Amino acid sequence: MMGLEAFLGFASIRARKERESLARSDAAASDCRTAIPSSLPSDVDPLLFPTPRGGDSPPPSSSSVLEPPSYADVVFGPFESSNGASDQGPFLRLDASPRSVRAVASDYRRIAVSDPQTEVEASNSLVPGGTTYVTYLITTLVRPGSDDAGPEFSVRRRFRDVVTLADRLSEAYRGFFIPPRPDKNLVDSQIMQKHEFVEHRRLALEKYLRRLAEHPVIGKSDELRVFLQEKGKLPLPTTTDVASRMMDGAVRLPKQLFGEWAAAQVAPQDIVQPAKGGRDLLRIFKELKQAVVNDWSGVKPSVVEDKEFLERKEKMQDLEWQLTPASQQAEALIRSQQDVGEIMGGLGLTFIKLIKFETEESVYRSQRIRVADTKNVATAAVKASRLYQELNAHTVKHLDTLHEYLGLTVAARSAFSDRTSTLLTVQTLMSDLTTLNTRVEKLEAASSKIFGGDRSRLRKVDELRETIRVTEDAKSCAIREYERIKKNNRNELDRLDREKHDDFLSMLKGFVINQVGYSEKIASVWATVAEETSRYARDNN
Amino acid sequence: MISPETSPPRSSSQSPRSPPAAPFLYISVTEPVKLGNGVQAYISYRVITRTNLPEFQGPEKIVIRRYSDFVWLHDRLAEKYKGIFIPPLPEKSAVEKFRFSTEFIEMRRQALDIFINRIASHPELKQSEDLRTFLQEDEETMERARSQETGIFKKPADLIQIFKDVQTKVSDVVLGKEKPVEETDPEYEKLKHYIFGLEDHLAETQKQAFRLVKRHRELGQSLSDFGKAMKLLGACEGNSLGKVFSELGAKSELLSIKLQKEAHNLLMNFEEPLKDYVRAVQSIKVTFADRANAFRQHCELAETTKLKEINLDKLNLMRSDKVREAEMEYRELKSESEQATRRFETIVRLMNEEIVRFQEQKTADMGLAFHQFAKGQAKLANDIADAWRSVLPKIEACSVSSQHG
């Protein structure tokens, strides 16, 4: 795996290359429709805020206080989100966000989800007539070693495939903060077909896949590659349904109840998988018992969590608790902003209708003056409304970061629980070993009292010794897994802390700059009207 | 508050002995105070009159008036000055709870102030005796005058009018004229069409304006909640990034207050003038009705007079001794008919003048409202820009410091 420093360096090279090519082609830059900060102090790390308009910005001052950017620096235009089936223009969001810099390092240059189609399920069920489901076209541009365009892949996937991908990833990459997948929606199929829902899901899928691709480890996973590139049926083992697992478990149950670990034939490497459903009933009982012992008895298990981890875990939980209302309030704010913009537009239109009416019936000079005044206000209102809507589109993009990190705290929780459950397995196995060893001792002691040895007891001891050996192997595996997950946790925590700082800062900066830019523009629109109508205020006094 | 008229009235009311100062009449409606208890509670206002006009009792007079007093004045003027667009009153409040809210009281006070000053600056209405009564009489006299109007026992003149209306209606049916007579003047038709259409458009605009006020309030609330959440997030983050969040949160809360202020400004200086415009248009519709009535009376009396004339001629030819009686009746009827015609023609003349005044006044009123609206929105947007801009230095400081991390 790439060292993180090398990864950053690699990304910064790419960012600089993009800046240069962008400075050359201003036309390309003008296509880019996002807020771009300018006039930055020269000592700011270009990695964080590369200035796309290379030569355009004025020489930055050496002071640490940023010159307030006037709205001229903000590029106004309809926000080009992933609305619609295809992105127009260059996909790479050439804004200064650290996200885009990280995206540049991913194996995939571009992932797009489009063209939802309804297909009929070939049903082998008893119910006549098929149910329908929706498939999405997923196009991927792979980034090879160089900057040239790589091969493009197109596959069709349904949501169930996405669930499978997510499940396989969570099994294979325990301890990692895996971006959460879009929600299932357990509503009836009528609603599933509705255009709005499909569109909403399409966007969510696109976001999800892009985030997976950006993850330094998961982005390079086979699972993702196979999902994005293998045509036809998704070649990943599907999530086994509960029923078959129950059957599985029921068959094994007698063995488990009457035998020991060995009889259950659990391979050591299987031990590292969390105990699931019917299959591992006995193991679940044992681990539960261990958990209770951990909590309630005075005896501390020999392997415990380190303090530093527990602190960071608590911090993460804190973050989750704060991000939940923050994300909700951000959403509410956006909605309110949207409402103001809409009503402003409605007001403008009502005025326009009034103007049309009065113009038809105009008789008096004073009427015509009034119509002219009303026209100014109506035009301003419509302009302001459009600006509000644009501002909002940008705000959505920025404040979405809150929601994204909320998702990551949930992913972190899952990664931590991987660790906890593995630790519990280790602790349980160690308890088992202690118990087994004690039994061996007792049996040997009892046997030695009998002259010539107790053959049945000795046979028992041999069996137990065999069990101990197997359990020792399992314990080694579990410990290795635990260490592995611990390492993953730590790396991910470091990565999250670092990226969170950058992303939050970028979010705040983008949000603020946008608000400033658009507010100034709106102010100037109204200032013109105020000036044009100022004589009424004078006359009044 | 609309400034009172400062130019001299057309009809000179200066006595030869008074100094040649410009005549003025300043009225203000102030200090709403809640009086009474429970169901009978009401708001009283201080009405202060400052004038140098000789018809008034003195240079300054302060009286206490309530909403129903204003209604009395309005109704009296509407009765006496048919043809003139009487300035509209703010509505009675439909919802009990809302009646004593600060906002409603302020809106009403402002509207009443505008109302009384419009009367004071109207060339005809300002000379009304009822206006002087309203501005100067003590509360008891006012109350008596007020209760007279609403009493069951109406004045004799009213009874006669009611009787006459019934009479004409009956005669209409008898004569087979079920459809009321209407003017066919095309310009008047155009005006009616204009006024009715205008009311619809204005009502729609006023509704939108009111919704805009509400949305401003909601945005203010969202900003406040958002600010709080940002502050908490900042506390959780800690270090310089946390400070940025806190600053953002603080600014957000500050802007929330500014939004509530602008919402109030929008309500008082943009939405209310639009509502006032709607009321004014509705007042014009009342004048339409008056004119229609006057026209009908004029037509019918003219008709009846003609019939009486024909009858009189007949009697004359027959040399009947009923001639004298008939002649007296005819002369009475003729003078009534002439009066009705004069009343109608006065209304037409007044209306023509009033329409011009109305258009001019509304252009001025709306111009001012637009100005206030635009000014308020510009200021709000600038405040928003300033508040967010002030966060930038902290953001920069944070990103610079993070380089050394």
Topology diagram in text:
The complex is a heterodimer of chains A (541) and B (405).
Chain A: H1 4-24, H2 26-31, H3 98-104, E1 108-120, E2 132-142, E3 152-158, H4 159-172, H5 189-193, H6 195-214, H7 222-229, H8 242-258, H9 281-296, H10 307-361, H11 365-449, H12 455-532, H13 534-540
Antiparallel strand pairs in A: 1-2, 2-3
Helix pairs in contact in A: 9-11, 10-11, 11-12
Chain B: E1 25-35, E2 42-51, E3 60-66, H1 67-80, H2 102-121, H3 129-136, H4 139-150, H5 156-174, H6 186-237, H7 239-318, H8 323-389, H9 392-401
Antiparallel strand pairs in B: 1-2, 2-3
Helix pairs in contact in B: 6-7, 7-8, 7-9
Protein name (chain B): (wild Malaysian banana) hypothetical protein
Pfam family, one (chain B): PX
Domain PX (chain B): 23-142
Characteristic terms for this protein:
heterodimer; A: 541 residues; mainly alpha; PX Domain; Substrate Binding Domain Of Dnak, Chain:A, Domain 2; three-stranded antiparallel sheet; 13 helices; 3 strands; elongated; disordered N terminus; B: 405 residues; 2 domains; 9 helices; 7% strand; phospholipid binding (chain A)
Structural summary, described in words:
Chain A is mainly alpha-helical. Chain A has two domains: 98-237, Phox-like domain (PX Domain, 2-Layer Sandwich), CATH 3.30.1520.10; 280-286 and 304-540, Arfaptin homology (AH) domain/BAR domain (Substrate Binding Domain Of Dnak, Chain:A, Domain 2, Up-down Bundle). Chain A is 63% helix and 6% strand. Chain A has helices spanning 4-24, 26-31, 98-104, 159-172, 189-193, 195-214, 222-229, 242-258, 281-296, 307-361, 365-449, 455-532, 534-540, and strands at 108-120, 132-142, 152-158. In chain A, strands 1-2-3 form a three-stranded antiparallel sheet. In chain A, helix 11 runs antiparallel to helix 12. Chain A is elongated and about 130 Å long. Mean pLDDT of chain A is 75; it is low at 1-73, 79-95 and 242-265. Chain B is mainly α and 405 residues long. Chain B folds into two domains: 4-147, Phox-like domain (PX Domain, 2-Layer Sandwich); 181-404, Up-down Bundle (Substrate Binding Domain Of Dnak, Chain:A, Domain 2). In chain B, 70% of the residues lie in helices and 7% in strands. Chain B is built from nine helices and three strands; from the N terminus they run βββααααααααα. Chain B has helices spanning 67-80, 102-121, 129-136, 139-150, 156-174, 186-237, 239-318, 323-389, 392-401, and strands at residues 25-35, 42-51, 60-66. A three-stranded antiparallel sheet of chain B has the order 1-2-3. At the A-B interface, helix 10, helix 11, helix 12 and helix 13 of A face helix 6, helix 7, helix 8 and helix 9 of B. Chain A: Residues 114-235 form the PX domain. Chain A: GO terms for molecular function: phosphatidylinositol binding; phospholipid binding. Chain A: This is PX domain-containing protein.
